[in-house]
Design a protein that fits this description.
It contains 7 helices and 8 strands. The chain is an alpha/beta fold. The strands form 2 sheets. Strands 3-2-1-6-7-8 form a 6-stranded parallel sheet, with helices on both faces. Strands 4-5 form a two-stranded antiparallel sheet. Pfam families: NYN (PF01936). One of its GO terms (molecular function) is RNA nuclease activity. InterPro entries: LabA, NYN.
């Protein structure tokens, strides 16, 4: 039985890249409802870089029920934005764990950089699982090796597709 106060921690860039790879768009309202229905998600954080031209998207995500946590963006010498949120996500998930804010956590990412966080939460029996924005082939082997339950967003296409 999945406990009632679960949080989702979503790597926004990883979700976006995964959806580009899969070639279809998410309906974020449907996604938010599905997260609540399937995993009892009460709080869903999306970690992303703050790029002013996406202000309307950010407002829409908030309307859908997501809490946005922004990382300052820097630009490389070609003008490409870089707003890596991995450390921020891990820190917030750890703070919320120690503050007993959630019963269990769901990670939405395919990034192996989160494997130590996943292993820790598994050892504490505080992990719902991982929702991979990629398919099984593209999900990091490091996440797979943790032994966590991995759900694939591609399996939910008929529920959450725009």
């Amino acid at each position: 039985m999945i406990k009632k106060n679960n949080y989702a921690f979503i790597d926004g860039a990883n979700l976006h890249q995964g959806m580009n790879y899969l070639g279809w768009e998410i309906d974020y309202k449907k996604l938010r409802v599905w997260l609540t229905d399937k995993f009892n998600i009460t709080i869903a954080y999306i970690f992303l870089g703050n790029i002013p031209k996406y202000g309307k998207l950010y407002a829409y995500l908030q309307e859908c029920g997501f809490i946005l946590i922004f990382k300052e963006v820097v630009y490389d010498n070609t003008g490409k934005p870089k707003g890596n949120c991995d450390a921020d996500l891990v820190l917030k998930a750890t703070q919320d764990f120690y503050n007993k804010s959630y019963d269990n956590m769901l990670l939405v990412s395919s990034d192996g950089d989160y494997s130590s966080l996943i292993s820790f939460l598994l050892s504490e029996k505080r992990l719902v699982g991982i929702l991979s924005p990629a398919n099984e082939k593209k999900c990091s082997i490091l996440l797979k090796r943790t032994g966590s339950k991995i759900y694939y967003i591609s399996d939910q296409k008929n529920i959450i597709k725009k």
